[in-house]
Amino acid sequence: MSLFKQMVIMLTIFLGIILASVMVLNFRTATEFVQNQLYTDAKNTAHSLGLSISKVADPKDTSTMETMINAIFDSGYHQRIMLKDIDGNVVYRRENDLKVSEVPQWFIHWVPIHSVSAKSDIMIGWTRYGTLEVSGHTGNAYRQLYSTFIDLIQTFLMLGFVVFGVLYLLLSLSLKSLVHIRNQAIAIIDNEFIIETKIPFTTEFRSVTVAMNAMVAKVKDIFDRENETLRRYHELLYKDAESKLNNRRYLTTKLPDYLHSDTSLASGVYMMFSFDEIDRFKREQGYEKYLGLVSAFSEIMTDEIGTLNNALIARLNESDFFAVIPVCDTVEATEHGQKVMTRIRAIIENIDSEVELSLLLGCGIGTYSENDTLKSLFSRADHTIAQAKLRGNFEIEVSRESDESLVLGREEWRNELMQSLEESRMVLAFQSVVEQRGDTLVPIHEEIFLRLLDKEGIIHSAGYFLPIATNLGLVDVLDRYGIEKVLEYVKERQPFAPPAINLSGDFIKKYANVQWLRTQLETFARQSDLVLWFEVSNTIALHELDAVRSVSAMVKTFGYRFGIDHFIIPEAGAIYLQAIRPDYVKSNAIYLHDMLIDKDTGKNSESFNNLVRSLGISVIAMNIEEAKELENLQALGIERFQGTYIAPVALLK
User: Fold this and answer.
1) Is the distance from CB of 56 to CB of 64 less than 8 angstroms?
2) Cα separation of 141 and 147, whole Å?
3) Which of 40, 111, 201, 611 has the fewest CB atoms found within 10 Å of its own CB?
4) Which residues of 288-303 are buried (b: 16+ CB within 10 A; e: fewer)?
């Protein structure tokens, strides 16, 4: 029970007792007054009427006496008037039955009023004639007392309403600060940092609010400092100082996520630009012009290639620049390559027309797929760039090797994908994510993937069809299909480990899809207690922040988990994590090793751990391929893992 309710109940009982006590005392006083007033009226009437009768000259003139008695009795204030002679014989008597129509019977029953009689001796002359007895009518007393009772009740209710209204307002104002304090505490749990600017006037609440503000400020300061430290370390580790592009280390760290077989980034185009005689240019033209050329070329690549969706650009060394463009073909890439060549050629000519004769620039373009490794991709790129340079300066060479999945036309692919959905040839696969508990690795969830079973019975990973589906705008259709299949499987099998479902950017940025997902989850939550896990890639989280934040909040209303896949801290830092508030992040094992080991000292770096822990986020290491990688990460404090060494991808049966 809330403090507000407790205080309201306590004060209500207290004030109720006080008001009830006052009302009871007032009513008791009123009852005594009415009882005394009844006797007083009867006594006064007996004396005044007796005095009037005493003035009758003839004791035998009873008619005059009766007239006087009738006049007084007919007023209705008396229950009985009786005249007796000196011997006790009744000379005249008037009496009414006790009937009170305006007062409820229960009131008469619970509030007894006794009828009292007053007597007066009648003297005619100097001779005592008899006795006059007058009894007051209790009906009038009951009416008067009942009216007083109603007035007291009305006054009691009115006072109670006013007092309780004022009490409610005062308590609301006094306890309003507690609501803010509670919101602060809830916000901290949800990884939000709220500083309360309205300090309450109540001393106790003021001290609590100040303490909460100090705690929130401290946690926020930890997050901000660690975020800035990581951002600078990230820049130092992964940025080329001259071009401000990503360096070779970043490319080799990030590329495994692109070559992952179950993402839409798994196929596309690579572009490699390479200068010959760059050292000679630096010696002859000077470092300033060399740096200007490098900066200009970096800017051109960023303008022409960096604006493409999910494009990854890096400088490998002084001479070589590399770009990876998912969901792209060689024709489109060649067009962008030609624009880069045209712009950089104009810049070189402006420096010195003689430079063009000695500074050789070539561009190699080819496709990559999920089957490539870093070694095979760089080897093929080196061969292609060498062929371009053999053809001359500012030439582009397109590799004739191509991904088999691109052989089909767009409409053929569309028909194939739609038929596979209709014929249920899209099957589910999974890979276990485990947690270290003591000496054993226990599954915590199963990441779900789609697989395509073609008409020849061959199963293809998502990297085979997902890039094409992205190009055709069918990814959200595949997402809906996958979600329905997963929910059906869970209802039928009730697996031990919950499934983790990946959501694409095309799915979450459409309001209709999110509402459809909410409806599905509402139905599922009523039928199963299993906790579902949902994930989006880090790229989607950065570019569709509002949509991801909305989906994360919606998923958490059902008590489910939400995470970010392929997590790498961006250039702007990890501030966006505060908005999304993920339960976990998945990062490449190579990247985690870079973040958790200081490259200069070789010692553990706590900045990454401090940042994610301050937000209540757990870390899952991905792409664990060897036992050595697992051991290294365990030594660094990582407890959750995923990879082919842990558990290979298998079909869901």
Assistant:
1) yes
2) 10
3) 201
4) eebeebbebbbbbbee
Measured between its terminal Cα atoms, the distance across the chain in Å is 49
The residues pairing with 398 across neighbouring beta strands, listed in sequence order, are 365
Q: Give residue 441's identity as a one-letter amino acid code.
A: L
Rounded CA gap, 201 and 207, in Å? 10
- What is the DSSP secondary structure assignment for residue 57, as one 8-state letter? S
Query: Are residues 107 and 142 in contact, defined by beta-carbon separation less than 8 angstroms?
Result: yes
- Backbone angles phi and psi of 300, in degrees to 5: -65, -45
State the CB neighbour count (10 A cutoff) for residue 189.
9
Say which residue the tokens 């305006």 belong to.
102
Residue 94 Cα distances to 124, 129, 132, 305, angstroms:
22, 19, 12, 119
Query: Can you tell me the distance from the alpha carbon of 451 to that of 231, in angstroms, rounded to the nearest whole number?
Result: 37
pLDDT band with cut points at 50, 70 and 90 for residue 457: confident
Give the Cα separation of 558 and 487 in Å (integer).
15
Sign of the CA dihedral 164, 170, 171, 172? positive
Residue with the two structure tokens 């990854």:
312
The most distant pair of C-alpha atoms in the chain lies apart, rounded to whole Å, by 162
**Polymer length of the chain:** 653
pLDDT higher than threshold 80 for residue 551: yes
DSSP state of 146: H
The CA-atom distances, in angstroms, between 383 and each of 248, 337, 369, 397 are 18, 17, 17, 10
CB 366 within 8 A of CB 429: no
- The single residue listed with the structure tokens 């031990």 is 496
Distance (Å, rounded) from C-alpha 415 to C-alpha 274? Answer: 41
Q: Which residues contact 538 (CB under 8 A, 6 or more apart)?
A: 564, 565, 566, 567, 568, 570, 585
Yes or no: say if 544 and 522 are a contact pair by the CB < 8 Å rule.
Answer: no
DSSP code of residue 597? B
Handedness of CA 104, 105, 110, 115 (dihedral sign): positive
Gap between the Cα atoms of 279 and 317, Å rounded: 12
- What average pLDDT does this structure show over 141-162? 79
User: Helices 3-54 & 138-189, crossing angle to 10 degrees?
Assistant: 170
Is there a contact between 464 and 490 (Cβ–Cβ < 8 Å)? no
| φ/ψ (deg, to 5) at 392 | 135, -175
3-state SS string over 370-406? CCCCHHHHHHHHHHHHHHHHHHCCCEEEECCCCCHHH
* Rg, C-alpha atoms of the chain: 47
404 alpha-carbon distance from chain centroid = 45
Which tokens sit at 438? 């003591």
Bridge partners of residue 619, in order along the sequence: 585
What is the overall mean pLDDT for the chain? Answer: 83
Q: In the structure encoding, which two tokens stand for residue 151, read together?
A: 């007035």
Give the span between the Cα atoms of 425 and 453, in whole angstroms.
Answer: 5
Long-range contacts made by residues 310-313, C-beta under 8 angstroms, separation at least 24? Answer: 310/265, 310/539, 312/246, 312/251, 312/254, 312/255, 312/258, 313/245, 313/246
pLDDT one-digit tens code per residue, 254-300: 888 888 767 778 888 999 999 988 888 888 888 888 899 999 999 99
Listing DSSP states for 98-118 in one string gives ---SSS-HHHHHHS-----EE
Find residue 442's DSSP bridge partners: 435
Distances (CA, A) of 252 to 161, 180, 248, 589: 74, 48, 6, 12
Give buried/exposed letters for 516-534 (b at 16+ CB in 10 A, else e).
bbeeebeebeeeeebebbb
